[in-house]
UniProtKB/TrEMBL annotation:
It holds the Pfam family TctC. This is Tripartite-type tricarboxylate transporter, receptor component TctC. InterPro entries: BUG (IPR005064), Bug_dom1 (IPR042100). Residues 1-24 form the signal peptide. Keywords: Receptor, Signal. CDD domains: PBP2_Bug_TTT (cd07012). Belongs to the UPF0065 (bug) family.
Amino acid sequence: MKRRTLLASALVLTAGLFAAPAFAAFPEKPVTVICPWTAGGGTDVLLRALSKEAEKFLGQTINVVNQTGGAGAIGHNAIRTARPDGYTVGMITFELNSLPPQGLVPFTWKDFDPLMRINSDPAALTVKADAPYSTVRGFMDYAKAHPGEITIGNSAPGSVWHIAAGLAAEKTGVTVKHVPFDGAQPAVTALVGGHIKAVAVSVAEVRSQVQAKNLKILGVMSSERDKIFPDVPTFKEQGVDVQFYTWRGLALPKGVPAANKAKILDAYKKAFETKDFQEFAAKASLNLSYQDSAEFAKFLDQNFKDVSAVMKNLGLAKK
């Protein structure tokens, strides 16, 4: 009897040696979120505010890292090639759908795992406060009367704001010179300094300078007026039928375990719904436009097709 008891004990101890190890619950260390654009721009500001709220639900620090360059290509590629363990998330932007048609990157949105869309913002044609025009039509008339003088800054060749400016010029029949910058914020800074004549970026990215009376918005490329600047008419109200939006969302590299993905998504979804984030977005003039993973994937697919067609018409797509 004693021998049987000793044998049973030995078997239990031996089984314990070969049992699967207990893994710590995800996440057990800080999470990194990659931003493909410069600090201070609309994408960066939005991501930092959302991640700050998400930390409360994830139970870990979330570090936002800016990996810029290549019109967003470097940051997006860093997201795509990150280790698929859930510890690296990324904010994908409109440029993920505008870079492939130009043949500038070897990937498309399908090489990412979309988590959620956060917002969409229309372009706002903005100039210096002392510019000799106060309407879209006035700006375009000036451009026609001063060929070669108008320079419009954008956040890199083929970027969303380059396409927005190109559409506006095409619809009004004027010729402008497009000046690329590494993000919208440097372009806005150049406008304030008088180095360029205009930008066509989001309202959020010019809001503080407009409120400081350094810049003024001539029109927004949306179906409705902006809530922060309700006195600014839309392009359509001024006789120019142009609507154009950028968008931002979160994505993971392909292959992240479902359980880890679910925890990241849950934390950011709850963060999105917090009163603090909603109020922040409203004050920052960021138009929130949530889509879940499935809806976001469908949106990305259609947006890619639409953007490719627009870029082809503007001569920006690779032949």
